[in-house]
Amino acid sequence: EVQLQASGGGLVQPGGSLRLSCAASGFTFSRLRMAWFRQAPGKEREFVSAISWGGSSTYYADSVKGRFTISRDNAKNTLYLQMNSLKPEDTAVYYCGRVGSGSLYNADSIDYWGRGTQVTVSS
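Now predict its structure.
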């Protein structure tokens, strides 16, 4: 059974940092692209970042480029998202997802989702 468990969210002040983790199991993690999406209240789920199976290629939404860093540890079957210089508009539930076929920027390409972790940026 495929399982993705995101963790690391919380409440942080503007300008602060958080590191999200996504523990994967039930499939060969090292052979698949992975991604982070987020969903704010009243908004559609949106692409945040993605990474190739080996970690050599990374992709970011313009809104997070230069502030967020995606990485993976294939030995630990874990995906990460380091988030720095957080802004109130980053407030959302963050989901990790396994990328199936199609564009990694598109939520419809995700074939398995984790449960999500809440990130709140507020003073």
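The chain has a mean pLDDT of 96.
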